[in-house]
């Protein structure tokens, strides 16, 4: 099985590697980082699709599917599990969704290994040291470990949420590496230092993504059936103690009882309330950036994306969490991470006149 999975990962990675190799881009190393960044963004979006379609346990073992490298080889085992529980987590469709997610993750892993090898092999010719590429390798290994625990610990909310955050962290590091390789001389100037607020905005965004992941992994998306009120109240009954106890099984309290509905309401209410602080800080940062002209296009993109993210978040409530809008909402969060990382790099490297 392991040999088959390795061959599958190499075959899937062969296409993006070939595209980099035959491209006319003079800087193929940066092209490789860009392709890896794009596929990591795709991986995060497809991971959201996997979670939202309840396909995370479509193959209840790891790294294969019922001990095989693909669902074709384990078809009889999958069909037997589906016959026992027709509405359970294991179906042929969910197995393919889960394994496709794993194949894409393995492809990203291969591309990051390639980056690390190239960065050390050509370290005298590249603009920067190979340590960031090496750090990315260890980071993706950690991400893979949490991907395995997500399955083996049966979608334990804290593990799934950390898996999401690590995915966003990998996206952030790849964005930083890609922007860094493309920077030459400093041609932009800043009248004031925006490093502090840019960092603050990125930290707040990651906290909000953690809260959003906590909503999704606890299936609390529809705990409030209206917006901006929550079940007709500004502050409904909230059970914070059970809502934010981290080490517990899905749908249960730490003592093994069913999670009360007021805890689900608290999870949803905190996520939507904290969102307003995140929106205010990012919009204020975008305003400052637009005002001083360090990265005006990034500021415009942030304005548009924040509006769309608010719209998609509210729409998930109004339309009772449709799959497409929920995936778009997750994609918007990933794009915000990408834009804020680019902006953080720009404001840190803007010269003072």
TrEMBL record:
Gene Ontology molecular functions: metal ion binding; oxidoreductase activity
InterPro entries in UniProt: COX15/CtaA_fam (IPR003780), COX15/CtaA_HemeA_synthase (IPR050450)
Topological type in the membrane: Multi-pass membrane protein
Gene Ontology biological-process entries: heme A biosynthetic process
Subcellular location per the Swiss-Prot or TrEMBL entry: Membrane
One Pfam family linked to the record: COX15-CtaA
Pathway it works in: Porphyrin-containing compound metabolism
Residues annotated as transmembrane: 6-23, 32-52, 103-121, 133-152, 158-179, 194-215, 269-289, 301-321, 327-345
GO cellular component: membrane
Keywords annotated in UniProt: Cell membrane, Disulfide bond, Heme biosynthesis, Iron, Membrane, Metal-binding, Oxidoreductase, Transmembrane, Transmembrane helix
Protein name: Heme A synthase
């Amino acid at each position: 099985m392991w040999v088959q999975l390795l061959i599958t990962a190499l075959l899937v990675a062969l296409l993006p590697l070939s595209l980099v190799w035959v491209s006319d881009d003079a800087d193929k190393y940066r092209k490789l980082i860009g392709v890896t960044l794009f596929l990591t963004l795709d991986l995060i979006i497809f991971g959201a699709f996997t979670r939202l379609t309840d396909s995370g346990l479509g193959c209840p073992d790891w790294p294969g599917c019922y001990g095989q490298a693909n669902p074709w080889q384990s078809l009889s085992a999958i069909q037997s599990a589906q016959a026992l529980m027709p509405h359970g987590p294991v179906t042929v469709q969910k197995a393919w969704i889960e394994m496709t997610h794993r194949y894409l993750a393995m492809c990203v892993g291969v591309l990051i290994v390639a980056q690390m090898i190239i960065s050390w092999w050509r370290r005298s010719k590249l603009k920067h040291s190979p340590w960031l590429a090496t750090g990315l390798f260890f980071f993706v290994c950690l991400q893979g470990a949490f991907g395995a625990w997500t399955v083996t610990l049966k979608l334990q909310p804290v593990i799934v949420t950390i898996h999401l955050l690590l995915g966003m962290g990998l996206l952030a590091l790849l964005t930083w590496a890609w922007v860094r390789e493309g920077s030459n001389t400093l041609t932009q100037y800043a009248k004031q230092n925006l490093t502090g607020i840019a960092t603050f905005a990125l930290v707040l965004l990651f906290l909000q993504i953690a809260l959003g992941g906590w909503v999704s992994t606890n299936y609390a998306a529809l705990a409030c059936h209206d917006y901006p009120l929550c079940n007709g109240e500004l502050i409904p009954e909230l059970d914070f103690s059970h809502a934010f106890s981290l080490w517990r099984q899905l749908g249960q309290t730490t003592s093994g009882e069913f999670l009360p509905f007021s805890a689900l309401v608290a999870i949803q209410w905190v996520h939507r309330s904290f969102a307003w602080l995140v929106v205010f800080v990012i919009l204020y940062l975008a305003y400052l950036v637009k005002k001083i002209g360090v990265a005006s296009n990034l500021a415009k993109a942030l304005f548009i994306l924040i509006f769309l993210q608010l719209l998609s978040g509210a729409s998930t409530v109004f339309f009772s969490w449709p799959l497409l809008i929920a995936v778009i909402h997750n994609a918007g969060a990933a794009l915000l991470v990408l834009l804020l990382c680019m902006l953080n790099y720009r404001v840190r490297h803007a010269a003072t006149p």
